Amino acid sequence: MNFRQLATRSALLLCLGLTVGACDDAINVEPSNSVSSDTGFTTKEDAAAGLLGAYDAIQSAEYLGLAFPTMADLISGDIRHLGTFVTTYGVIGLNQTLPDNIQVGNTWNAIYSAISRANYLLQESEKISDPAFPKLATQAQARALRALSYMNLLALWGGKPEGYGYNGGLGVPLRLSPTTAIGPETAAIPRSSEAEVATAIRADLDFAIANLTPGAGNRVTKSSALALRARFELRMRNYAEALSFANQVTPLANFATSAPTGATAPDALWQLFYSNTDQSQYAFYWYPAPGGRNEFDPGTSIAAAHPAGDLRLPINVVSAPTTITVAGAPFALSAGTTQKYYRTSSRDDRFNVVRYAEVVLTIAEAAAQTGDLATATNNLNIIRTRAGLAPTTAVTPDELVADILLQRRLEFAYEGMYWFDLRRTNMVQTALPTYTQPFRNLFPIPLREVQLTNNLIAQNEGY
Questions:
Q1: pLDDT tens profile 182-193
Q2: Farthest CA pair distance, the chain
Q3: Cα–Cα distance between 164 and 195 in angstroms, integer?
């Protein structure tokens, strides 16, 4: 399904409330590829298009289509920048990001655009009385998308230098209603606390969990919503809660014997789908010409982080030109790239938002943190065995957690997870000893947000 093609009528341009006037009625016609914010959604088809528009927003190249996970992996060192975008991606990779970094501002805006689309859909869907309209399922998906976006805002810009879930943790501006016209709706608001944003995230995900069914695919399901709730509680260091939600995810059959995730993702609970007309940017940025711009390479330490015999090493780090065959078609892999993103011609690499491997490792880590070492060991060994490794030799809780965190780094390479693991475990300065300024553990609020609100949106300390 091509989200961008199907979602054009829901690309609302609501922030400015644009209108067109003309003397001739023949040209004063409502565009067929938009929905007026004055009219809003009136049919279940309008809401379906609006939902596709909400999904399309998170697929943006400025968001999960490239920038958000890439920025996280650049600053963690798992991706090395070697291209020409030195003032944006380059300085992020050096942990010297400034508030006027254009990429940081673009990603902030893209996330809030996704939130705005979800907010508008939630408001307008209440007006549709058609009994055939799946209102609760539609709203559940919209609320899950909104929750994910607020999780991601907190992940980069919120919390404290030592991690998330501490007293006094910083939040972000919390908008839970749409902005359809210039005026009170678009007035600047200050940052909410981390705790206030966390309350909104939990409410949205709980609604999604209650109104969706289990499954996997290119839409949010109960399974992926539960996994997101477990991810959030793990990040906030609420280990018993993380364990409870992860244990509710319907297990994937044959996961333990499936191949490690590379060019395909047999354990994906929720993926973003792309196509030749709705293109993914990952391979373009990873691969050299022809077909790419070779902006990124694997980080200098990630290959050595793999234990001997790890089946994920040739997936994560292509060290020599290689040809692979996927679904009967050959693909040439270049040295210094990855098998996770490689489709330079069709540019339809999928992006994994939630995978079952994350659920298994969340169970392992939360169990280790709450004293159930047998469960922790069993789940850790599922991942190790799938990667071609012997069972863990870890015995103590600290040893188990250290191994679990390593498996997470290798399992989710280039999926934007490692930096947030370092942050939530307060390991940034330990794992990356050249990062001697802990205030940089939080990204800077974009300069434009601070300036245009006359400092109502306060900058993170140190910038």
A1: 888 889 999 999
A2: 79
A3: 10
How far apart CA 65 and CA 437 sit, in angstroms, is 30
**Using CB atoms within 10 A of its CB, is residue 150 exposed (0-12), middle (13-18) or buried (19+)?**
buried
Last residue of a domain, one of 293, 325, 349: 349
Beta bridge partners of 296: 81
What domain range includes position 304?
274-349
Instruction: Tell me what the mean pLDDT of segment 399-406 comes to.
Output: 98
**Domain for residue 47, yes or no?**
yes
Q: Are 366 and 246 in contact (CB under 8 A)?
A: yes
From the list 271, 286, 296, the residue with the least C-alpha distance to 344 is: 286
Look over the chain and give the mean of its residue pLDDT values, rounded to a whole number. Answer: 92
Taking residue 11's Cβ as centre, other Cβ atoms within 10 Å add up to: 17
What DSSP line would sit under 135-182, residue for residue?
HHHHHHHHHHHHHHHHHHHHHHH-BBTTBSS-TT-B------S---SS
Q: How many domains does the chain have?
A: 2
Q: Rounded CA gap, 41 and 20, in Å?
A: 20
CA atoms within 13 A on the CB side of 167: 0
In Å, how far are 86, 262, 283, 294, 375 from 401, measured between CA atoms?
A: 35, 24, 33, 35, 12
Residue 68 burial (10 A CB sphere; 0-12, 13-18, 19+): buried
CB atoms within 10 A of CB 290: 7
Rounded CA gap, 264 and 266, in Å?
Answer: 6
Q: Which of 4-13, 36-45, 228-237 shows the lowest per-residue confidence on average (mean pLDDT)?
A: 4-13
**Rounded Cα distance, 353 and 172, in Å:** 22
Give the separation between CA 448 and CA 78, rounded to whole angstroms: 29
How, if at all, do strands 351-355 and 296-298 pair? unpaired
Token pair recorded at residue 262 = 């590379």
Q: How confident is the model at residue 35 (pLDDT cuts 50, 70, 90)?
A: low
Domain edge (last residue) among 349, 376, 395: 349
Any domain includes 404: no
12 pLDDT above the threshold of 60: no
In this structure, are residues 97 and 91 in contact, taking their beta carbons and an 8 Å threshold? yes
User: Does a structural domain hold residue 402?
Assistant: no
* 372 part of a folded domain: no
β-strands 329-333, 322-326 pairing? antiparallel
Tallying the residues shown for the chain, one arrives at 463
